[in-house]
Protein backbone atom coordinates (compact mmCIF):
# COMPACT_ATOMS: atom_id res chain seq x y z
CA UNK A 1 0.00 0.00 0.00
CA UNK A 2 1.36 3.41 -0.96
CA UNK A 3 1.52 6.22 1.54
CA UNK A 4 -0.05 9.43 0.08
CA UNK A 5 1.96 11.64 2.44
CA UNK A 6 5.19 10.59 0.74
CA UNK A 7 3.92 11.95 -2.57
CA UNK A 8 2.70 15.17 -0.96
CA UNK A 9 6.09 15.64 0.64
CA UNK A 10 7.82 15.19 -2.73
CA UNK A 11 5.40 17.67 -4.32
CA UNK A 12 6.01 20.18 -1.52
CA UNK A 13 9.77 19.84 -2.00
CA UNK A 14 9.42 21.20 -5.55
CA UNK A 15 8.27 24.60 -4.26
CA UNK A 16 10.56 25.03 -1.25
CA UNK A 17 12.87 28.02 -1.66
CA UNK A 18 16.50 26.92 -1.77
CA UNK A 19 19.60 29.06 -1.82
CA UNK A 20 21.82 28.54 -4.84
CA UNK A 21 25.18 26.88 -4.19
CA UNK A 22 27.18 29.30 -6.33
CA UNK A 23 28.39 32.14 -4.07
CA UNK A 24 28.22 34.75 -6.84
CA UNK A 25 24.67 33.76 -7.74
CA UNK A 26 23.74 33.78 -4.05
CA UNK A 27 25.20 37.29 -3.65
CA UNK A 28 23.48 38.50 -6.83
CA UNK A 29 20.08 37.21 -5.77
CA UNK A 30 20.54 38.74 -2.32
CA UNK A 31 21.37 42.11 -3.86
CA UNK A 32 18.41 41.79 -6.23
CA UNK A 33 16.14 41.19 -3.24
CA UNK A 34 17.52 44.28 -1.49
CA UNK A 35 17.02 46.39 -4.63
CA UNK A 36 13.41 45.21 -4.94
CA UNK A 37 12.82 45.95 -1.25
CA UNK A 38 14.33 49.45 -1.54
CA UNK A 39 12.28 50.12 -4.69
CA UNK A 40 9.05 49.17 -2.96
CA UNK A 41 9.98 51.40 -0.03
CA UNK A 42 10.60 54.39 -2.31
CA UNK A 43 7.37 53.80 -4.24
CA UNK A 44 5.46 53.57 -0.96
CA UNK A 45 6.96 56.82 0.27
CA UNK A 46 6.01 58.62 -2.95
CA UNK A 47 2.47 57.25 -2.84
CA UNK A 48 2.12 58.30 0.80
CA UNK A 49 3.45 61.79 0.07
CA UNK A 50 1.06 62.12 -2.88
CA UNK A 51 -1.87 61.10 -0.68
CA UNK A 52 -0.89 63.65 1.97
CA UNK A 53 -0.56 66.41 -0.63
CA UNK A 54 -3.91 65.53 -2.19
CA UNK A 55 -5.59 65.58 1.23
CA UNK A 56 -4.02 68.93 2.08
CA UNK A 57 -5.09 70.39 -1.26
CA UNK A 58 -8.65 69.17 -0.76
CA UNK A 59 -8.74 70.60 2.75
CA UNK A 60 -7.40 73.96 1.63
CA UNK A 61 -9.79 74.23 -1.30
CA UNK A 62 -12.91 73.01 0.55
CA UNK A 63 -13.69 76.29 2.45
CA UNK A 64 -13.52 78.23 -0.79
CA UNK A 65 -16.01 75.90 -2.41
CA UNK A 66 -18.39 76.11 0.57
CA UNK A 67 -18.19 79.92 0.62
CA UNK A 68 -18.85 80.06 -3.10
CA UNK A 69 -21.89 77.82 -2.71
CA UNK A 70 -23.37 79.86 0.14
CA UNK A 71 -22.92 83.15 -1.69
CA UNK A 72 -24.55 81.75 -4.82
CA UNK A 73 -27.60 80.32 -3.09
CA UNK A 74 -29.87 82.96 -1.60
CA UNK A 75 -32.77 80.63 -0.77
CA UNK A 76 -33.08 78.77 2.53
CA UNK A 77 -31.98 75.20 2.90
CA UNK A 78 -34.95 72.83 3.18
CA UNK A 79 -33.10 70.54 5.60
CA UNK A 80 -32.68 73.25 8.28
CA UNK A 81 -35.39 73.58 10.94
CA UNK A 82 -35.79 77.07 12.36
CA UNK A 83 -36.99 77.10 15.97
CA UNK A 84 -36.82 78.96 19.27
CA UNK A 85 -35.63 77.18 22.37
CA UNK A 86 -35.97 77.93 26.08
CA UNK A 87 -33.26 76.86 28.51
CA UNK A 88 -34.78 74.96 31.44
CA UNK A 89 -32.94 74.86 34.76
CA UNK A 90 -31.98 71.58 36.36
CA UNK A 91 -34.31 72.23 39.35
CA UNK A 92 -37.32 72.48 37.07
CA UNK A 93 -36.46 69.12 35.54
CA UNK A 94 -35.95 67.35 38.88
CA UNK A 95 -39.07 68.89 40.56
CA UNK A 96 -41.90 66.46 41.35
CA UNK A 97 -45.08 66.89 39.37
TrEMBL record:
Keyword Transmembrane: yes
Keywords recorded for this protein, A-Z: Membrane, Transmembrane, Transmembrane helix
Transmembrane segments: 29-62
Protein name, as recorded: Transmembrane protein
Lineage of producing organism: Bacteria, Pseudomonadati, Pseudomonadota, Gammaproteobacteria, Lysobacterales
Amino acid sequence: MRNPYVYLNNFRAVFTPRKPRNPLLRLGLGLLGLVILAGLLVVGLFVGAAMLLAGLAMKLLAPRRAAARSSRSSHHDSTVVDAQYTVVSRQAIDAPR
